[in-house]
Amino acid sequence: MEMEGIVSVWAGVFETDKALREYFDYMPGRDIPPFSQDFFDGCDIYPFDIDFSERSVHEFTVDPEVLVCHNSEGTDIGLELKKLFPQGLEKPCNAAILVYNYKYDPEDGTPNPNAPVTFLGAVPCALD
């Protein structure tokens, strides 16, 4: 649900930024992006404002702070994620999806267990 000051974060593995874009972005010729199908039951293209989202592919890491540091609010978000994962992520990841002003709740749908990304959590974030 939309919630100001919260960012929902997913992490996964993609070979290229193009592969992540194809997973996350709406593309002509298909009704619903795979990301929306995997986490929002394919009910809508996006249940959030797409203008308040970011995605990135970079080096592999188990450090949640490093995973999101490339994003615009990554420093603050990384510190909050570190509180959820003080020992690091379970597996190395090289991609992050951030949706600002949105609090994702896995209980609201049926997340696809085979999705290429995993929901890490929804944490506070102060947008500038």
Adjacency order of strands in the biggest sheet = 2-3-1-4
- The total strand number stands at 4
- What is the tally of helical segments? 4
- The tally of domains stands at 1
β-strand amount:
25-35%
Please state the CA-atom Rg, rounded to the nearest Å.
14 Å
Instruction: Report the helical percentage.
Output: 10-25%
Q: Which H/E pattern describes the elements?
A: EHHEHHEE
Query: What sort of overall outline do the alpha carbons produce when their principal axes are compared?
Result: globular
Question: What are the segments in which pLDDT stays under 50 over at least 5 consecutive residues?
Answer: none
Largest sheet: 4 strands, antiparallel
Q: How would you classify the helix and strand content by structural class?
A: alpha+beta
